[in-house]
Amino acid sequence: MSVDRKKLIIEAATKSFSLFGYKATTMDQVAKIANVGKGTIYTFYANKEELFKEIVDNMIVEMEKEANDAINPEQPFMENLHLTLYRLLEFRREHQLMIKLFQEEREIRTPAVLEIVEEIENAIISFIAEKINIAIQKKYIKDCDPELTAFLMLKMYITLIVDWERIRKPLSKEEIAELFDLYLFKGLSF
Amino acid sequence: MSVDRKKLIIEAATKSFSLFGYKATTMDQVAKIANVGKGTIYTFYANKEELFKEIVDNMIVEMEKEANDAINPEQPFMENLHLTLYRLLEFRREHQLMIKLFQEEREIRTPAVLEIVEEIENAIISFIAEKINIAIQKKYIKDCDPELTAFLMLKMYITLIVDWERIRKPLSKEEIAELFDLYLFKGLSF
DNA sequence: TAATGACCGATTTGTTCATTCGGTCATCAC
DNA sequence: GTGATGACCGAATGAACAAATCGGTCATTA
Q: Is residue B157 a contact partner of residue B183, using CB atoms and an 8 Å limit?
């Protein structure tokens, strides 16, 4: 059996998108890195965007795996939710491809990248919403719209970790856990 | 006494910035609208950015006045906080200059506009933080960092009103009030 | 027949030149 | 003499054109 060309292409594309982003990655370059003719890529993927989606979808699977690894079954639900959200934002801050994607979203606004970032966000929301849905059924938390709650929690974490750090001081993991618990779980009322 | 040239300039600049934004407003144009020589503008303001700041600072004062008008002393603190935040975001959505500013922030990223938008955000945060500070002292709510809490609340409102509407369905004023009360005041715990 | 890379039209990039703009200051009107 | 002005300046922007690059195709090849 000859070499697995599809695998070579996926590896090459992952490298290139991670290093240069979507726009700055050329199909010629991917072919070169993969040691494959350019035409070969088009026997597996209809176009550049399809190849891109495949790479990002793989990353999303990897991300969800990591998020699940963060869960500690002995901890209460809200603590695990915190650990999950925190791990997701760690991934977002450290994963090469993720970094490039968000940078390109901000700085170049490549349409294909805007689309894929929205897809990533949706994946995260679905992922969190599912956990919330279960928590509602098990009466761990009050009844609420799981999707909206997930959306709000994600935005809250981005606010606490990314935005607040930009204008004031960075918060530690423990501080964020406490704030999450105070604002969303216990509430500000006495 | 001759005409108040400074007032004419302020009125003209307000009109022009509101209609065309910062970048597309020229000093020649402001002078023309104000019926004033271009040099005259520079006897009051050191440069275009200073003039811009004056106009936006006036708008901030107007915005805070409107936000205060939204308060109903007979209502409980959290309801008034909701009314205030909602009014602030209404202002943001409806005020000509505000609309142009945020549009230019997103689409052109003019440095001077990025700066001023941050200034506006800081003004809102200080404004809300002050209310929260008083509420903490009066034991209306638990102890917390007023600035961080204000920041979080503002972001939460933007999430609920702007972001959620973009990806799903718009929420009514009452729904937002309920969500605000549920998530931040009562909390999700039983 | 799976793999390839020369080739194509479209888009992007680089370059040059003309225009516009923010800011100055010599002159003017009173 | 003083406050107001607009012609003028260099820098920045934009238009226009040429050159290079890129995504995608398909006749050829091994």
A: no
